[in-house]
Amino acid sequence: MTELKRIKVEVAYGKSVDEQIALEVTVHEGATVEEAIQRSGIMKRYPDDIDFDVNKIAIFGKKTTMDAVLSEWDRIEICRPLVSDPKEARARKAERDKAKKEAEASA
Fold first, then answer.
1. What is the pTM of this model?
2. What are phi and psi of 77, to 5 degrees?
């Protein structure tokens, strides 16, 4: 029986700006994102913080699925939910900038 080649990947999670973790995991060639996450033990470290209905998964910043097959040295990222909608945040910033310019022009 042929033994499957082993590959190394990384599972990363940032609970907050100040608390991040990246775990190196060895899995068999052909392993999925889900298998690597399970093997990493990260769910045991953060059982109340990670919910895959809320936290999205990416490989090197590109959205992926739990059944995606991994390649050597892939970096699986468990993403925090967005605090605010980026479009709304940009719109609020544009409004503030506009108000500031108007205030400066009238001064």
1. 0.74
2. -115, 125
What is the identity of the amino acid at 11?
Answer: V
Q: What is the pLDDT of residues 67-99, one digit of tens each?
A: 999 999 999 999 988 766 778 878 888 899 988
Residue 76 CA to residue 88 CA, distance in Å, equals: 28
Assigned CATH topology for domain 6-81: Ubiquitin-like (UB roll) (3.10.20)
Taking only Cα atoms into account, the Rg of the chain, rounded to an integer number of angstroms, comes to 20
| Residue 70: closest CA among 10, 13, 20 | 10
Domains of the chain, by residue range, sit at 6-81
The two tokens of residue 5 are: 């080649």
**Order of strands across the sheet with 75-78?**
20-28, 6-14, 75-78, 57-59, 62-63
